[in-house]
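[Q] Does anyone have a clean structure-token version of this?
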Amino acid sequence: MTIAVNTSVSKAAVTLLLAAAAACLLAACHRAPPPAAPPALVLALPVHSDASNGSGVVSHPVEVTARYSTSVSFRVPGKLIERRVRLGDPVRQGQVLARLDPLDAQKQEASAKAALAAAEHRLAFAQQQLDRDKAQAEQNLIATNQLEQTQDAFTAALAGRDQAAAQWVVARNSLQYNTLAADHDGVITSENADTGQVVSAGQAVYGLAWTGDTDVILDAAESELGRISIGQAATVTFPALPNHQFAARVREISPAADPQSRTYRVKLTMTELAQAVRLGMTGDATLSPVASGDGTDPDPPTYTVPATALFHKDNSPAVWVVDNSSTLQLRPIKVGRYSDRSTLITAGLHEGDVVVLAGVHTVYAGQPVRPVKPLFDGQDNIDGAAGPAEVVAGPVAR
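[A] Here you go.
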């Protein structure tokens, strides 16, 4: 009797377990699929060509300098006893700038003048002696060799007089050289010696910038020389003169690079001189693009992006671009110039392409994304920013 009851209970338990399993399988078959992950947020902005941003093709910091400047120095050594001009003073040609102690030069000039007087007396005596001997030789009163000796003495006295005269001129010039005068109209740009100092011949005492033509100088990298040419128009601005723009043209391009900076010196001439523009002022020069002969742009458009946007595909540079389907694709590019915070792209991008600005190592090709703007205005500060925040590679936390 007991065995029959246990068998009935076991069959009922098995039936219940099978029913529960079938219910679970049926529920699993009708469970809804999990929702798709939201697109990742990426910091990205559309790129625009440098020319369309109004920044010009080439823009550089500049400095105003005189076209001609010289170091003013004494031609003789001596002790500096007087300085008559100071830094920034305007001077005229011939104006006395400084003086050396003239005592030694005065003594040398007096000695040379006395030697010249003695030589002139000897020459006068030799001339008289020669005249007497010639008269006596005509009457055969003296021997021929005596006349020849007199002629030799006269020639020596004449040469001595000429030598003494030349030495007196040198001594007189040395005395004049103890006074330093300006060779040209200009302005004093530096003071290199103090009163009481003993200076050597040729040692700079003042720096003199000539009055007249002024140059605006800039240093260009070798990659930019192809976009700079003689006569190219430019616009110069100075922070000290806000709301003023000055027209200029490229006057000279250095044929060799500076051995230290490896840049090329470019000199611009301002077409209209302004009294407000002072030597040493700093500013910025924007060089206008040079049109080609057929009227087209000489160079393809360039784009400037932050250095944090740069990625690599194999050994080639590339950037992440958000395509029309809001997915990422890796775009190969060509780089024209690297800097600390930005990269100049010369090929591979098009106007309006949405480029990921940061976090390029946290994304992958084909990833669905949603671009968001960084906190700064990318078009204005793209070169000055150290890089926006990293890409958010997941849904926004709520």
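[Q] Thanks! Anything notable?
[A] The chain has four domains: 42-53+300-381, 58-66+212-287, 69-101+179-209, 103-177.
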